[in-house]
Amino acid sequence: MCGRFANQQESVAAWDEYFDVPMPISVREEVVLGYNIAPTQMIPVLTADGSNGNDGRKWLAARWGMIGPWVKDASDISSKFATFNARSETVSEKATFRGAWSAGRRCVVPAIGYYEWQKTENGKQPYFVKNCDASAPLFFGGLYEPARDDIPASCTIITVPASDTMTQLHHRMPLVFGTEIVVDSWLDTESFDGHLNTLSWHAVDKAVNNTRNQGISLIT
């Protein structure tokens, strides 16, 4: 699964420059960048809604954790249900996700890496997973629901069975891409395959367990 990740950059603008898609000021002001991003936070996601230029690409500020289409009021939004991940095997069936899936509301969540935990004799040990090319980012495949009334846009990250290499760490992993070409294929709903297998990981400090902790020391 993917329950915590890092998307820190020198500025939010670094992400829109990577895709050459301008990020609206309203989105920049609403999203969070950091080394310890957790569910329910507002994050930048790239969508393909086809309603503007840039090949239909558009940035959204989205709550990480899909808000079901049956939610009619912001006061009804609950954090009790784990909707920050959607299993690839059932994404087209689950009530929370199937509307976005069938409508092709795919998105990409940019990151520099994510965290995974392993049980040990001394408790759970966190690891930071990143691109083998340390200078290259990761892009998670996801789905999103647009904002409506007082309900914010929301998103989920799709998970898949772990690759042969990643099974050493966990049996699941996010649907992760490493190149803009594969990102484009995902956003254009051309393909469900092509996720990145060249990942590396290393143990990190347990300080990451506390979502209030931030800083580059969490990933080193």
Description:
With 220 residues, this protein is an alpha+beta fold. It has one domain (5-218): Alpha-Beta Complex (hypothetical protein yedk fold). The chain is 13% helix and 31% strand. It has 4 helices and 12 strands, in the order βααβββαβββββββαβ. The strands form 2 sheets. It has a 5-stranded mixed barrel with strand order 2-3-9-8-5. The protein has a 4-stranded antiparallel sheet with strand order 1-6-7-12, with no helix packed on it. The radius of gyration is 16 Å and the shape is globular. The two termini are 21 Å apart. The model has no long low-confidence stretch (mean pLDDT 90).
Which CATH architecture is right?
Alpha-Beta Complex
The count of domains is 1
**DSSP E strands, number:** 12
* CATH structural fold name: hypothetical protein yedk fold
Strand order of the largest sheet: 2-3-9-8-5
- Return the string of H and E elements: EHHEEEHEEEEEEEHE
Shape verdict:
globular
Largest sheet report: 5 strands, mixed, barrel
Which radius of gyration do the C-alpha atoms yield? 16 Å
Poorly predicted ranges (pLDDT <50, ≥5 residues)? none
How many helices? The count is 4
